[in-house]
Predict the 3D structure of the following.
Amino acid sequence: MNTIKQTAAAAALALAAVAAPAAPAATAAPAYRCASSTRDIDDNSYDGPWPDNWRTTVKTCAARSGSTVYAYAEVKWDGASFYPVDDPTIFDGAKLRLQIKQSRQGTDPVVVERDFPGLEDRMEDSTSSGARSGTYRSATISHRVGPGALGDLVLFLDWHGDGRGYQRHDYTASPTV
């Protein structure tokens, strides 16, 4: 009798497995294509004897899923260490402007852009020894775009006390997706 119950239970499980609807297939994440470039940026507000350049590397990435293009950027910096620890007066502002552009002959028109102003506090932060390096990754932006789009990024820095306002620093755009 025990064998009959086991056989019946096994048959019921097999029947349930066959009759159960298949789980939906997971949608694959779009494959990002990235480009990276590095610049040395001079602190316009400082003209003293210590090295004051900030080495910044920006990686801009874009991906396509159907007609939607996604883009994000990551900036890494290694700043001058002569400033006081956690000096909040290095910048009056620092932000990233992430853009999705339609790739065309000549100037690529901006389809959508978003500013990420959360960079200033992070760049002014330092270790207890004054080392100023870090990484910031933007959120992902997206927009429906025709064929041939790309991600692009501009870093804007406003050095404290230099009187010039935001200065634009361009980096390499992502490959076309």
Q: What stands out?
A: Helices lie at 2-19, 119-124. The first strand starts at residue 33 and ends at 41. The chain has two helices and nine strands.
